[in-house]
Structures are given as structure tokens and as C-alpha cells.
Write a structure and sequence with these properties.
371 residues; alpha+beta; 4-stranded parallel sheet
């Protein structure tokens, strides 16, 4: 395995045996993460001669507090055995540390133990594996943990109207997708099938949301935010955006409409069976893939979209009123505070929010090439 030093961009060998801090959420998905770890992951770690410390979380934000406050030097990588929510906690906890610029470089690894498992599915894709779910995806990710190497991970810095700072590795959603994600929580016992049921339920009573969407297209590589050679500062600076109480720059694009969905996605998968951004070839590409649809999109088109999304063919089908554009920064301004807005699947206040991408700010274990 290769390790990228926090103080240099050049890889070096991980100490042997490797030392992992494993954070496991026993309540994620169908609640079987602990038994799956024992039966599928532990034997592979033993065979790889890896040492690990297993910490089972007991409450929300426990992992966030742990990585924010503890000395992490005893471990070579942080492993998350859960859904995307626990990885969200870890990344935001690391970014809250005084030494965030160094600690965010510690390699992260994901083992699917939740419902959505979008990052796990994305890493599986980047590593050259076929799209799989369940224990097959877990086995693939455990193999990546044992044999993979760190590659750059893009992180999007988000700021809300209340000046809350949020760091995201996966997505921001407003409208149909976030509605389905959160309202399907009642079907969590069904595992990934909860999203199919939630989609059907929401299609029967489709909602629309009035607002303004602004974005900076990814026209040239010079506009992409990079973390290379970043000096350690108190906070991460967002150079592409202006304060939320000011108008967006004149060279941005703005759309004011009645939206059915807005999705900003920076990984290939939105879920284990949602190959939403097939153009993304690695976790450090440097683009935000912005999808949006207005109220003129039909229910038939939405059904067509989500069926085709399973194989990643939806962008080849010219679905009317669905727009996709690569961007490096964006702003969403809902006209009302009603509706659900999520970051990496976690609910946040539905209010004006903006963000920009920071290319390769973190690192994640993968078998794919470094970008």
C-alpha cells in the first residue's frame, strides 16, 4: 500500500503492518454493520497482517468529536464502516481541528454499512470493479482497504446564510432527490429498496420549489480550486465566491425558475444503484456536476431518468428539461424555507447556500489511478 505524506505530494510506503482506526455505526442501514465487519472484513484484515482499532459509535456526532479532539498519529488511515453520514462526520471533524490542513490529508477509507453507500459505490467504480451491491460491494471495498493507495479526494466548502461552514465529499440536493432520501427513512428496514419505494411515493405527489440557481461553469482548468502547496491557515479560503449577501459575479450564470430538483454531485454514484455521474473517473477530478430540472419535466421523464440512472445511460437519452453542467462553484437561493435540503444525505436548513470545490484537499484509498 502507498501512503501520501501530509507534508508532501509524493507517495511513500505505508508502515508494515498498516494501522487502521475503524469507526463503525451499528445502526446504519439494516443494522447489520457489526456482524458484517466480523464475517467479511476482519478475515481480510488478518490475512493482510493489518492492525486495527475498532470503535463502535453510540450516538450522532461521536465520530466527529473523536477525530476533532484525539491524537490521530497512531493510525495510518481512518476507516468508516457505515453509510455516507459517518464519513460526513469524520471529514467535518477533521476540518474543525487547528491542524486541519495536515490532518485532512490522512487517508480515508469507506466500507459500506448503510443504505445509500454512494461513496463506497464510487470508489468501487474508480477501482475498476463492476457495479455491485450488498456483501459483494463490501468485499470489494475491504480488498481496496487492504491493497489500495491514497488518491486525491475533492471536498466542497459550503457556506449557509447563517454563516455555518460545511464540508462535503459527495453532494448537495434540493427538491425531489432530497425529499426521497429523507422521507424514505421510515422504510430503512428495507435497505436500499427504501429509495425505490420513496421515489414512487414522491412521484404521486410531485413538489416544485421556486428559487434562483447560480453557477460558475468549469470552462478552464485555471478556474478549478486546487489545494496543492496550500500553507496551513486558520480557515480554508473560498476564492471563487463572494459573500452570500452580495450578488454573484457578473460572469456567473443564473437561472430563476420553479425547480423539481437541484443536485450538485462530485462523485460518480449518488447511491449503490444510482450511477448518476458516469463521466467522473476519479475522486479528485475537480468538477461539481450540477443537475437541475424545472417544473416542466414530466413524471414519465423522471421515471425514465431514475431507471436509466441505474446503468448510467440517462445522459444519452436527452431527457427533456433535465440540465447537466460541470461547474466549480454554485449558489442556491430558495424563495421560501419550505422543502428539504441535504448535504451528503444529512438534512440542513433550507436557506440560501453556496459552495466551491477544493480539488484534492483530502485523500481516499482506491485502486484507481491518481489524478
Amino acid at each position: 500500500m502507498v501512503y501520501v505524506s501530509p507534508n508532501a505530494g509524493h507517495p511513500r510506503l505505508l508502515p508494515s503492518p498498516a494501522r487502521f482506526l475503524v469507526l463503525l455505526n451499528p445502526r446504519g442501514g439494516t443494522g447489520k454493520a457489526f456482524s458484517l465487519f466480523e464475517t467479511h472484513v476482519m478475515p481480510m484484515l488478518t490475512e493482510a497482517n493489518a492492525h486495527f482499532t475498532l470503535l463502535v459509535t453510540e450516538r450522532p456526532n461521536q465520530a466527529r468529536e473523536l477525530v476533532r479532539e484525539r491524537d490521530l498519529s497512531a493510525w495510518d488511515a481512518i476507516v468508516v464502516m457505515s453509510g455516507d453520514g459517518l464519513m460526513f462526520e469524520v471529514i467535518n471533524g477533521l476540518m474543525e481541528r487547528p491542524d486541519w490542513a495536515t490532518t485532512i490529508k490522512k487517508p480515508l477509507s469507506i466500507l459500506p454499512g448503510g443504505s445509500g453507500n454512494a461513496l463506497a459505490a464510487s470508489i468501487n467504480h474508480y477501482s475498476g470493479h463492476q457495479q455491485v451491491t450488498g456483501t459483494k460491494l463490501l468485499t470489494n471495498c475491504a480488498f481496496i482497504l487492504c491493497k489500495g493507495h491514497p488518491v486525491p479526494l475533492d471536498i466542497v466548502s459550503l457556506t449557509t446564510s447563517s454563516q455555518q461552514r460545511i464540508f462535503s465529499f459527495l453532494s448537495l440536493a434540493w427538491g425531489f432527490i432530497s425529499d426521497v432520501d429523507i422521507e424514505s427513512e421510515k422504510y430503512r428496514f428495507m435497505g436500499y429498496a427504501r429509495f425505490s419505494v420513496g421515489t414512487f411515493v414522491r412521484l404521486t405527489a410531485l413538489r416544485t420549489y421556486r428559487g434562483r440557481l447560480s453557477y460558475l461553469p468549469a470552462i478552464s482548468s485555471s478556474e478549478k480550486s486546487s489545494s496543492a502547496d496550500r500553507t496551513e491557515t486558520r480557515v480554508l479560503e473560498d476564492s471563487l465566491v463572494v459573500p452570500l449577501d452580495q450578488p454573484v459575479p457578473s460572469h456567473w450564470h443564473t437561472v430563476e425558475d420553479q425547480f423539481v430538483l437541484v443536485l450538485a454531485l462530485y462523485q460518480s454514484h449518488l447511491g449503490a444503484e444510482h450511477f448518476t455521474a458516469p463521466m467522473v473517473k476519479g475522486p479528485g477530478e475537480g468538477n461539481i456536476h450540477l443537475f437541475y430540472a424545472n417544473s416542466r419535466i414530466s413524471r414519465t421523464s423522471l421515471i425514465k431518468l431514475f431507471i436509466a440512472m441505474e446503468k448510467g445511460t440517462h445522459l444519452d437519452q436527452e431527457i427533456a428539461h433535465l440540465i447537466h453542467v460541470p461547474v466549480v462553484a454554485f449558489r442556491i437561493e430558495p424563495s421560501e424555507s419550505t422543502g428539504i435540503m441535504t448535504v451528503d444525505g444529512e438534512v440542513i436548513e433550507c436557506s440560501p447556500i453556496q459552495g466551491q470545490i477544493h480539488r484534492g484537499l483530502g485523500h481516499v484509498l482506491s485502486l484507481g489511478p491518481q489524478l
